[in-house]
Design goal:
Blueprint (H helix, E strand, L loop, with lengths): L1 E4 L2 E5 L5 E6 L4 E4 L5 H14 L4 E5 L8 H6 L4 E5 L8 E2 L2 H4 L2 E2 L4 E5 L2 E6 L2 E6 L5 E7 L8 E5 L4 E9 L11 H13 L5 E6 L5 H24 L11 H8 L10 H25 L1
Parallel strand pairs: 4-5, 5-6, 6-10, 14-15
Antiparallel strand pairs: 1-2, 2-3, 3-4, 7-9, 8-11, 9-10, 11-12, 12-13, 13-14
Length: 284
């Protein structure tokens, strides 16, 4: 576990995903969870070493980070996720549950027995009474239709989820690419951010991390757009994978004999196919 601030920490899972936590005087907020339940329990034990207070909520930077088994492994705390992740049927939040949360219209729904608190634009989780900490969640929607940022207010620390990947290509399979690039450009210009925690890779200053992600999106777009303009088939995006892997994949994943190559190449191909569909729709 790495310390970002006096009460903010993050940890990289065995699969390379970053998860975090914010420790308050009366409760803890987690940001994403390891997808493996056993590793989620291990993460819970690490958090317990920092604080004996309960976990008030787990904020998910996107719904593809939410796993029922991992939530259960933490004792089923409230899951916070954007409205777009679920069907529109909902009930108003009860006062007892909504009190530690600030949102114009929080809604509580059931997620396999786990309360889930959803929001449309933003929501804040309030920790502490004497020494108050605000954990702000804001909808972004670039990486995926329900992707969010999590910010510790007035600290300069932001968890951007899979909007940014450091040292490897981002997953493009769910992206709104125009919005995504606009979000990244704004991140790069934001001088209030002192520590950016990406979905994958080490935390650091935003400019370098954002540049690498932007570069990959632009490079992939140029290559796929050439296929669309030439009326080549969607299946031909697979021919782009080896070249992009050699440029953007971690060294450990560049050899085709590596298990990591197969996993990342599959993810990359799915992202390129989604990009192809988006570009083809625009060209019609």
């Amino acid at each position: 576990m790495k310390k970002l601030h006096k009460n903010v920490f993050y940890h990289t899972t065995a699969g390379g995903l970053n998860v975090g936590c914010v420790v308050g005087e009366d409760a803890v907020v987690c940001i994403d969870l390891p997808p493996d339940p056993a590793e989620a329990r291990s993460w819970r034990a690490q958090v317990a070493e920092l604080s004996d207070k309960p976990i008030r909520a787990v904020i998910f930077t996107a719904s593809d980070r939410m796993h029922v088994e991992s939530l259960a492994a933490l004792g089923a705390p409230t899951a916070v996720v954007h409205d777009a992740a679920f069907a529109p049927v909902a009930a108003p939040a009860e006062l007892a549950l909504a009190q530690p949360f600030e949102s114009p219209a929080p809604l509580v729904r059931e997620f396999n027995g786990v309360p889930r608190l959803t929001f449309s634009d933003s929501l804040s989780v309030v920790l502490g009474v004497k020494h108050v900490t605000f954990v702000d969640v804001t909808f972004q929607g670039g990486y995926s239709p329900d992707a969010c940022f999590v910010t510790l207010r007035d600290s300069g620390i932001v968890f951007v989820g899979d909007h940014v990947a450091v040292g490897q290509p981002p997953n493009l399979a769910h992206g709104n690419f125009e919005r995504w690039q606009t979000i990244l450009a704004a991140l790069k210009k934001n001088r209030t951010i002192t520590a950016l925690v990406p979905g994958r890779g080490p935390a650091g200053e935003p400019a370098e991390a954002v540049d690498a992600t932007l570069d990959y999106i632009k490079a992939a777009t140029v290559r796929v757009k050439a296929l669309v303009r030439a009326n080549r088939s969607r299946s031909e995006v697979s021919a782009l994978v080896p070249d992009l892997m050699m440029i953007y994949a971690p060294k450990i994943a560049r050899s085709k004999s590596s298990p990591a190559y197969e996993v990342l190449a599959h993810e990359m191909r799915a992202g390129l196919e989604h990009l192809y569909d988006e570009l083809q729709t625009k060209s019609e």
